[in-house]
Design brief:
By secondary structure, the chain is of the alpha/beta class. Helix content is 27%, strand content 23%. A hairpin with an 8-residue loop joins strand 5 (39-41) and strand 6 (50-59). The structure holds zinc ion.
Length: 299
């Protein structure tokens, strides 16, 4: 009889991988198909590392035998060490402090903030509204600070009444800033932050729309990850200082929310700057290249 092995006559298997018979055929010119008569002798140690032979034998009705051998080389299991997950790279602006001042300018306090920043050679960002003297916006810009847009009225019931009313207000503050500093600002801070839960009272889901839409229009918006809580009732220069320094981190950028209209913020500012300098932080104004700090929406 004829005995033919299907598949590879010489196979390699990794240890632990089960051998699967690729098949065989036995034909005899007298008995016909004898495949079902083939006897397969599987070595007992087939699962051990080494070379093993599987013996196939068929005997026809006349007692003639035919053998075939398949060689199986079982190789050691290659231990795959899982790749160590890469440690996430520190953000490029790790250890940077972006001081941000909202709701100004204020005739007295913003001027004092600017004086301190100048003496300490620190650049910051002012998210301005529709009040206060133009000269202070001009001065902040001329002294190297970034002028961002907060909104004109800062009235939640107006700005968050609808997408259109938000942009109507934004255009007003944008025009004000452009007329003072001679160029448009595309750097935004939403009143209450993008995470505010107040806007839903006036227009459910409006922050979901606005946060996407402002970016489509070429703006960048910045929430914060450190807050002086200087607009809270009972805030003092000591509380503002503590609130800021307790949340500063060298492993990320620090977008610090402050309000230049608050006297206790003015009083805390120099100590905050000196603490940060002494601890190796550096200060930068927000630019269009600054990675956005974005809150989780809550509308
Ligand atoms: Zn504000």
């Amino acid at each position: 009889p004829q005995l033919q092995l299907l598949g590879e006559v010489s196979m390699q298997l990794e240890q632990g991988v089960e051998f699967e018979e690729p098949g065989f055929e036995a034909l005899d010119n007298y008995d016909g198909d004898l495949t079902s008569q083939v006897i397969v002798k599987m070595p007992e140690e087939i699962e051990e590392v080494g070379t093993h032979e599987i013996e196939y034998e068929v005997i026809d009705s006349s007692g003639n035998s035919q053998k075939a051998i398949r060689t199986i080389e079982v190789t050691k299991k290659t231990v795959v060490t899982p790749p160590t997950p890469p440690t996430p790279p520190k953000p490029v602006d790790a250890g940077v402090i972006y001081l941000t001042f909202d709701d100004g300018p204020h005739g007295i306090n913003t001027a004092k903030v600017l004086d301190i920043l100048k003496q300490e050679e620190v650049k910051a960002t002012f998210f301005v509204v529709g009040v206060g003297p133009d000269e202070l916006i001009k001065r902040a810009h001329d002294e190297g600070h970034t002028i961002g847009l907060h909104t004109y009225t800062h009235k939640y019931n107006e700005i968050y009444a609808s997408v259109n009313s938000y942009y109507a207000d934004l255009n007003k503050i944008s025009d004000r800033v452009e007329s003072i500093i001679g160029k448009k600002s595309y750097i935004l801070r939403f009143p209450g932050g993008s995470s505010n839960a107040v806007s839903r009272r006036y227009s459910l889901g409006i922050m979901t729309t606005l946060t996407k839409d402002v970016i489509n229009r070429g703006y960048r918006y910045f929430d914060w990850n450190v807050s002086g809580q200087d607009a809270e009732r009972g805030a003092t220069s000591a509380s503002v200082y503590q609130n800021v320094i307790k949340d500063l981190s060298k492993n990320r950028s620090n977008n610090v929310l402050l309000h230049d209209i608050q006297p206790h913020t003015v009083a805390a500012l120099r100590d905050i700057i000196r603490y940060a300098k002494a601890n190796g932080y550096r200060f930068e104004p927000i630019t269009m290249e600054t990675p956005m700090i974005r809150h989780r929406l809550a509308n």
